[in-house]
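User: Please predict the structure of the protein below. I'd like the answer in structure-token form so I can feed it into my own downstream comparison script.

Assistant: Understood. Taking the following sequence of 148 residues as input:
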Amino acid sequence: MKGIELRDAHVHHGPLEALHGVTLAAPTGALTVLLGRNGSGRTTALRALAGTLPLSSGAVLRDGRDITGSPAHERAARGLCFVPDRQAVFSSLTSRRTWNSAAPTAASAAPWPPTPSCARCSPAARAPSRAASNACSPCAAPCSRGPR
């Protein structure tokens, strides 16, 4: 299968088993959602996929190839990484910049860093009347993103 898989995964936190034989698949090109109650192992499963938590047993596969023994930095270099859900992690970035930091492309190679005003203002928020002056409408400060 093209994508990522966790097969019969068991993960321990000390003497406690956090994942008990979990199997899941996220095919390439599809939206996969992992739902569960607090403490159900969602974060543990994602960290096991990314390699930041070792499996006690089971396997992690990427495009059908076993990558269980690959360290997290190798997985991240190939685009598989875990970005924790914490407000302060990328608080100065727009949603687009956060996504682009995970998978940079030529299209996302805009000037960086933006001015502090740009971290608060999206291109859509710039008022048409200020487009010629290249200023953000919420704060009226110069914008490094360029004219509309």
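That's the full token string. The first strand starts at residue 3 and ends at 13.
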